[in-house]
C-alpha cells in the first residue's frame, strides 16, 4: 500500500485533479483490455472462437476499447490545451534544442529535467500518439468486423501490432515514472 500512496502523492503534487483522474482511468482501462485480450479468440476469418468466456472477453474488450478511445480523446485534448502541440512534438517544428540538451545530460549520466520541448515531454507525446493509434485502430477493426468486411483481419493484425507498441511504451513510461517518483521522494 505504501507504493500506491507514493504514486498518489506524487500525482497530487504534479497533476491537476482532472489529469490525475484521467491518468488513473486510462491506466485501469488499458490494463483491463490487455488482460481481456488474453481470453479473446477472433479467428483469421473473423469468426469468434467458442465459449462464454471468449464471448464475454471480446464484447468487454470492445466496450472498454470504445470507452478508452473517448477518455483518451478527452485526455489528449486537455493536455494539448494546457501545453500546446509544440510541448509534446517539438520535432514537427524542427526544434531540437531542448532535446539535444537532454540527450547531452543523459550522456553525462544525469536525469534530464521535465520541461517543454524536451526529451521527456517528447516521449510523452509519443505515448499520446500510441494511445490514440491503438484505440482508433481498434475501433476501425471493430467497424470492419461487425460489417463483415473481408479485410478486417488485416486491421486486426495492425491493431495487435500497435497494441504491442503501446504495451512497450506503458512498461517503459511506467518504469521510468516509478524511478522518478522514488528518486524525488
Throw out a few tags for this protein:
single chain; 185 residues; mainly alpha; 7 helices; 77% helix
Brief summary of the model shown:
The chain is an all-alpha fold and 185 residues long. 77% of the residues lie in helices and 0% in strands. It has one domain.
Structure description:
This protein has 185 residues and is mainly alpha-helical. The protein has one domain. 77% of the residues lie in helices and 0% in strands. Helix 2 packs antiparallel against helix 3, helix 3 crosses helix 6 and helix 6 runs antiparallel to helix 7. The protein is globular, with a radius of gyration of 19 Å. The mean pLDDT is 92.
Helix/strand order: HHHHHHH
Portion in strands: under 5%
What class, by secondary structure content? mainly alpha
Oligomeric state as shown? single chain
Name the average pLDDT.
Answer: 92
Number of strands: 0
- Residue windows where pLDDT falls under 50 for at least 5 positions: none
How far apart lie the N and C ends?
16 Å
Radius of gyration over C-alpha positions, nearest whole angstrom: 19 Å
Gross geometry: globular
Give a quick account of the main beta sheet: strands, pairing sense, barrel closure: none
For the record, the count of structural domains works out to: 1
Total helices: the number is: 7
Helical residue percent band: over 70%
Amino acid at each position: 500500500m505504501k507504493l500506491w500512496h507514493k504514486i498518489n502523492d506524487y500525482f497530487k503534487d504534479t497533476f491537476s485533479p482532472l489529469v490525475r483522474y484521467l491518468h488513473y482511468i486510462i491506466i485501469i482501462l488499458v490494463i483491463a483490455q490487455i488482460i481481456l485480450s488474453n481470453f479473446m479468440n477472433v479467428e483469421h476469418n473473423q469468426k469468434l472462437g467458442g465459449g462464454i468466456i471468449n464471448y464475454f472477453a471480446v464484447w468487454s474488450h470492445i466496450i472498454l476499447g470504445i470507452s478508452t478511445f473517448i477518455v483518451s480523446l478527452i485526455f489528449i485534448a486537455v493536455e494539448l490545451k494546457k501545453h500546446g502541440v509544440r510541448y509534446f512534438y517539438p520535432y514537427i517544428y524542427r526544434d531540437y534544442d531542448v532535446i539535444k540538451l537532454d540527450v547531452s545530460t543523459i550522456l553525462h549520466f544525469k536525469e534530464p529535467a521535465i520541461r517543454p520541448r524536451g526529451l521527456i515531454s517528447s516521449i510523452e507525446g509519443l505515448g499520446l500518439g500510441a494511445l490514440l493509434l491503438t484505440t482508433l485502430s481498434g475501433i476501425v477493426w471493430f467497424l470492419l468486423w461487425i460489417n463483415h468486411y473481408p479485410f478486417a483481419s488485416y486491421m486486426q493484425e495492425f491493431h495487435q501490432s500497435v497494441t504491442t507498441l503501446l504495451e512497450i511504451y506503458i512498461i517503459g513510461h511506467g518504469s521510468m515514472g516509478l524511478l522518478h517518483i522514488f528518486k524525488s521522494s
